[in-house]
Design brief:
PH-domain like; 9 helices; alpha+beta; 3 domains; rod-shaped; single chain
Length: 432
């Protein structure tokens, strides 16, 4: 191979510039010999050293092969560093040191240095890649830290600005007539969205407390019943009597039940002495339908223990007594019709229409629903309320369908038989 051969160099000298085979320009030839360094080369070759290289270039190429010169040597001169490198490899007898260059005698020395350098280059490349990637990662980390620091300062600024604006808007709500209901909440930063939801909930509770504390204790039962009714009827029924006062026991009122208020009061007292109930929840005259498709005038009395169906023309004699624990749900319509269906556990439902109210067609379905819901809440019992214009009911186990139709020529509400069950004709002049 080449490492076992001796080098042989050829230098071409042009004898003239006219390309003539018979002319020889001595001055021109001397200039070329001096320019090519042939005399120095000849002197070196005569000494036996075929390769020469400045110390700095030699170290730059082979310094990674010596532990004392990599990555940078700490010696006084490049010549000392070159000498140390060659001595570590054991080539001190095959070289000579000049003032600025190192001279190598055989190609084998250069081949060994090149071979070791080629083995170390991939390792150096990996080292440089690792260092550069580390530098890039550290720079990115600094950028991210700076970005997060800026984001943190900006978020704190937004939070502070939001809280200051919140305090500014709501600092005088205690003296406002609506206690701040008309005030618009500022737009919160994303990080405070949950905080604003909780703050709004607390604010609504505080505002409700400010309003409620001015309500007399005697009216609190009515307020709770209206809240219960609103929870199941608001948005589903056109009107549920929220704007008026709720009297509950209408049959005991002389203005509502003239001539029969006293007999009703006597019947209530007799029932109180018999079953010892606590309070009357609701009472009213009703129009009811039975399983024989007959419609009759009756009255209902709801206490904290029972639901009573009564006969007004016979001193309010009790015709049916149903424990409230047997009532599983109520069904009402979305229109103004005063229809209420009491669903029971024994599948013998009671369908009634509140009537003979003062004023005529007064909305009392919402009152009945709210009173029963509030009572069930205090007794920790669940009561289902359904709002539908097509009500399914069961009379002695037989399924029937009850609907409502508004008729302008009807003077009073009444039930009629239909193909699928019953229909309640509601007077159009009373509102649909």
């Amino acid at each position: 191979n080449l490492a076992s051969k001796e080098p042989y160099y050829v230098r071409c000298i042009k004898p003239n510039d006219q390309k003539s085979p018979v002319l020889f320009d001595e001055e021109r030839c001397r200039h070329q010999v001096a320019y090519l360094g042939l005399l120095e080369n000849v002197r070196v070759r005569r000494a036996g050293f075929a390769y020469r290289q400045p110390y700095d270039r030699f170290l730059q190429r082979y310094k990674m092969t010596c532990e004392y010169t990599w990555p940078n040597h700490l010696m006084a001169t490049d010549r000392e560093a070159t000498q140390t490198l060659l001595e570590q490899h054991g080539f001190q007898d095959d070289v000579a040191y000049g003032h600025t260059k190192v001279f190598i005698r055989t190609p084998r020395t250069l081949f060994c240095l090149e071979q070791e350098r080629a083995q170390l280059i991939p390792i150096i490349v990996l080292l440089l890649q690792k260092a550069w990637r580390g530098a890039l990662a550290r720079r990115r980390c600094r950028y991210l830290r700076a970005a997060y620091a800026i984001m943190g300062y900006y978020k704190r600024h937004k939070v502070k600005a939001y809280l200051l604006e919140l305090v500014r808007r709501f600092q005088g709500v205690r003296s406002m007539p609506d206690f701040g209901k008309s005030l618009a909440w500022p737009e919160p930063p994303a990080v405070l969205a949950r905080f604003q939801e909780n703050s709004q909930q607390l604010f609504r509770r505080w505002r409700a407390r400010q309003i409620i504390k001015n309500i007399p204790p005697s009216d609190m039962a009515q307020i709770r019943a209206k809240v219960a009714a609103m929870g199941v009827l608001h948005g589903l029924r056109k009107d549920w009597g929220c704007q008026r006062g709720w009297a509950r026991d209408y049959l005991s009122s002389a203005s509502e039940n003239p001539g029969l208020a006293l007999p009703f009061a006597r019947r209530v007292q007799a029932l109180r002495d018999k079953v010892h109930f606590g309070a009357v929840l609701f009472s009213s005259h009703v129009r009811k339908i039975n399983r024989f498709n007959k419609s009759r005038d009756r009255a209902i009395l709801i206490t904290d223990q029972h639901l009573y169906k009564m006969e007004p023309r016979k001193q309010y004699r009790v015709m049916r007594e149903l424990p409230l624990s047997m009532v599983t749900g109520l069904s009402v319509t979305s229109c103004r019709a005063q229809l209420v269906v009491f669903h029971t556990q024994n599948h013998d439902d009671l369908a009634v229409c509140l009537h003979k109210t003062q004023p005529r067609g007064d909305e009392r379905v919402g009152e009945l629903v709210g009173v029963l819901l509030e009572h069930c809440r205090t007794t920790k019992r669940e009561l289902q309320v359904q709002v539908s214009d097509r009500i399914q009911l069961s009379l002695r186990g037989r399924k029937r369908l009850l609907t409502v139709e508004t008729q302008p020529d009807v003077a009073a509400p009444d039930f009629r038989k239909s193909r699928d069950g019953f229909v309640l004709y509601w007077p159009g002049s009373w509102g649909g």
